[in-house]
Structures are given as C-alpha cells and as structure tokens.
Design brief:
21 helices, cytoplasm, EC 6.1.1.17, three-stranded antiparallel beta sheet, 12 strands, aa-tRNA-synth_I_CS, Glutamate--tRNA ligase, ligase, Arc Repressor Mutant, subunit A
Length: 504
C-alpha cells in the first residue's frame, strides 16, 4: 500500500502524461527560452540534512532572483533505500524552511518508462550498446586497474561485438559509447572551466541488466524534460557532470548551466558529521531556531555579499547570484548560528515571534503542557513579557524558558539556586514588602519600580538585595526577565500570592 506521499507523486506523473502528450523536446525548448528553471532533487533515503537544505536554498534563491521557477524532484530510483518516511521528512523540511517550489513534486521512479525510451533511442542510433560482461569479468578489470595503480574502468570489450556472441540466457546491461579521444569541458559557474580527458570516461552503464535505468541517465532525461536551465548542486557531483554531459551530447540536447558548490565541513575542517551539525532541519526547528535565521546562516555558508552577515530574506533574493559562491568548503559553526538567530529574534515582531513559539511548542519537552494552559489571559501575559524576554534569548528554547514563569502553577517548585536565595532574612524582606505592594492603587512599571526602590532605600539595601529574593519567589528561578516586567506580567494579585507562598 503506497503512502499518501507516494500516491500523490505517482498520480501527479500519471496526470502529466495524460494531459501533456506533446513531444518532450518541444516542452523543454519553450520553457528554456522563457525563464530560469532550477531544481532541487533529493534522494529520499533520510531526512533533509543541512547540506541538502543549503542546496535547496541556493536553487530557490537563484530562481527567485531571476523571476524563475524551482521544481522539486524526488530521486527515488534506489528502491531499496527510498522510504515514505524520508519523502515526508523532505517535504516537511522544505515547508519549515519556507522553500516553496513550483508545481507538484515529481517522482523520478514514476518516469522510468521515459528513461527506457531514451535508452532504446540511443541503442537504435548506435550511440549505446549491449554489454554481456559477467561479474567475474568486471571484477578482473578492477583488479587489473588496481594492480596498475589506475582508477577502475570498463575496457570496452563489448563496444563493437555482435550481441549474437553473448552466452545463452545472458542479460545485457546497456552502456553509452563515450568518445575515445578529445576532452569533455564543463564551464562551471563556481569551479571555473573543468576539463576531463575522454580517455578517463569509460562507457558507463545507462541501464542495468534488470531493466532499470541508472542515475546518470535518469537525471539527464528529467532535467531536459523539466526544462532545467541551471543545475546548482554539491561539488561531489562534479564527476557526474562530465558523465552526464556525454548523455546530453549523445542526445543533441543543450547542457544546462552548472554550478557545483563546495560541501559543508565541521569547525575542525573535517567532513560534516552529526557531532558537527549534520542533522535534519527538523532538529534545528526543535532546537529553537527560526527558519529566517536558518536561511540567513545557510546562505552565508559558501556565499557572500561583501562583509554583510545579517540578511532579510528579501535582501537575499535581491542580492543572490552564482558569482558570489566561493570555491572553498564552508565550516559549520553552532555559535555563529545561535548569535545570528538571536539577532533575528530581536528583529522579529512580537506577534510573529509568538506564532513561531506556538508552532514549535508541540515538538518541545513540556511544550504541550504550555499549549494546554494557553488561553487569552496567558497570551496577553506572553505578549506583555515578549519584548523583554526576547532581548536575552538566542533561541526559541531560551524564549520558552524565559516565559516559563507565566505558566508555573502555585506553589512554585524552586530551582536550587533560587531556593538558596530565599534565606530567612530574604523571606523577612518579602513579608515586609507585601504590604507595600498591597497598598499600590496603580500597578504599573513606574509605580512598582518606585515602590521597590523606596523600600530598598528604607532598608538601607542595594536594589539587587531586594530584587534577587523577589525574582526567586515570583519565578522560582535565579534568572528571569527584569523584575518589574515580571511583576507587571503576573499582575498584582498573582504576584502577591506568589510572595505569600514563600513566606509561610
């Protein structure tokens, strides 16, 4: 039984085939002449990781910057490793990142008949051939190459042989006829001109003996049929670019403009791993980062606009160009991400930040408990506290922690540090200040500020000596938003009740 994701992707492709029977080449040519078309083409074998999210972002930005389109293709031809859960994770990650795409997502596997059609065309035109090599023969070729300290490559033994020479019952793989001489040139927008001698490109398999087309064949056909004008992807695909160019040339198709971007490394320069931050984007959501900040941080991993660090999304769209991408690998740095996220939080409207917090609460520990308590009164308190709390917060987790006093139930469970602040002398101060608060006819920042300062002066104490036990008694914590903000957010009745709880 197919999941909803698979059913949706499959039906979309069926609909396309039924409603657009005109030749694919005509469709492609009209699109390519009209506008820039990029694509994000993840394999659904896991979550949408940081490297994939940045690739999607670069494609999205380039399309937006040039009034073009970005399409999403799910490259699910690896049937053993592709999963429904991974498709759902990719779609959810794209949605959270705010990276929309044009049209419906396309399942590459659902286009397998189109891929086979191209393979048959290449065979008919003499640009591909059937290879009947056994696994033992291929292993021998690899061993010979290794012994001669050469990269493993196919020796072309079936290139000009007649299929009638094949062993009875043998199944053939289909290989493309690569040029034997000359060179293949990739004019890359990031890497520059990359020249690969054709002698280093053997006759790659374009369809396996089980009838399934290979990745390098399917990608070219899909990019052509979908009218892709610009391919922006990781530089680990640079070798594939040369092989795919051979397919374009064999089909007499235009080669899209290519830009192979450097990979992301950890702070130590090593390949990015989970300890560095190679997590799914949903993990960053759950760590309290804003999608706006993630877009800002990721665009700076390999791309620059002068010395600017902080960008709005609109600025990124206006400024983004492939020429701003560097060749060196970018280094992931959690501290920079956190600082940038804090900047975005401080620059976000309080109501928008409230919405972001509410969206992430279901994914956080105790978040559902907060949601269950949420009503109009609590929302009003949160909005009163927001401007003060967000100044100290770097993530939504910090924001949640800073607002926790709003949701705490009486009597408060004191944190260890807060409990230590409430000495006998401190509790005596609280008992003395309660009547002061009860006597206030106006409950405002100015009135509470003036009352506490006058109380401290009367007791010949510094303000902090009064504010600290007040903070501990009102929030149960040793750190919190400004104490006068806390008093106003809680209100007169709740504030006095919390103070009395600690004086029993």
């Amino acid at each position: 039984m197919l999941s909803k994701s698979w059913q949706w992707l499959h039906q979309m492709v069926v609909n396309m085939a039924n409603t657009h029977p005109i030749p694919q080449r005509q469709v492609t040519d009209s699109i390519m002449c009209a506008q820039v078309v990029t694509r994000f083409a993840p394999s659904p074998t896991g979550f949408l990781h940081i490297g994939g999210a940045r690739t999607a972002l670069f494609n999205w930005l380039y399309a937006k910057a040039n009034s073009g389109k970005m399409v999403l293709r799910i490259e699910d031809t690896d049937r053993e490793r592709s999963t429904d859960a991974a498709i759902d994770a990719i779609l959810a990650g794209m949605e959270w990142m705010g990276l929309d795409y044009d049209g419906e997502a396309v399942s590459q596997y659902s286009r397998v008949e189109r891929h086979r059609e191209i393979v048959e065309q290449l065979l008919a035109e003499g640009k591909a051939y059937r290879c009947y090599c056994t696994p033992e023969e291929l292993a021998e070729m690899r061993e010979t190459a290794r012994a001669n300290k050469l990269p493993p490559r196919y020796d072309g033994r079936w290139r000009d042989r007649d299929p009638s020479e094949a062993p009875a019952g043998a199944k053939a793989a289909i290989r493309i006829k690569a040029p034997l001489e000359g060179k293949t040139t990739i004019n890359d927008q990031v890497q520059g001109t990359v020249v690969i001698p054709n002698k280093d490109l053997d006759d790659m398999i374009i369809m396996r003996s089980d009838g399934n087309p290979t990745y390098n064949l399917a990608v070219v056909v899909d990019d052509h049929d979908m009218g892709i004008t610009h391919i922006v992807r990781g530089d680990d695909h640079l070798t594939n670019a040369a092989r795919q160019t051979l397919v374009y040339q064999a089909m007499d198709w235009d080669v899209p403009t290519m830009a192979h971007i450097p990979l992301i490394h950890g702070p130590d320069g090593a390949k990015l791993s989970k300890r560095h931050g190679a997590l799914g984007v949903e993990a960053y959501r759950d760590m309290g980062y804003l999608p706006e900040a993630m877009r800002n941080y990721l665009v700076r991993l390999g791309w620059s606009h002068g010395d600017d660090e902080f960008f709005s999304t609109q600025q990124m769209i206006e400024w983004f160009d492939l020429s701003g991408i560097g060749k060196a690998a970018a280094r992931f740095d959690f501290k920079k991400l956190e600082n940038l996220n804090g900047q975005h939080m401080r620059n976000t409207d309080d109501s928008q930040l409230y919405d972001a917090l509410i969206d992430v609460l279901p994914h956080l520990e105790d978040g559902k408990d907060m949601l269950n308590q949420l009503d109009d009164g609590k929302k009003k308190q949160i909005m009163l506290a927001m401007s003060g709390v967000k100044e100290r917060a770097k993530t939504l987790l910090d924001l949640k922690a800073g607002l926790a006093f709003v949701f705490d139930q009486r009597p408060l469970n004191l944190e260890e540090k807060a409990a230590k602040l409430l000495t006998d002398d401190a509790r005596a101060l609280l008992r003395d200040i309660i009547p002061v608060f009860e006597g206030l006819t106006e409950w405002s920042l100015d009135s509470t500020d003036a009352a506490v300062r006058a109380f401290a002066e009367e007791k010949e104490l510094k303000l902090g000596k009064v504010a600290q036990p007040l903070r501990a008694a009102l929030t149960g914590r040793s750190t919190s938003p400004g104490i006068f903000d806390v008093l106003i957010v809680l209100g007169k009745e709740e504030s006095i009740a919390r103070l009395k709880d600690q004086c029993v």
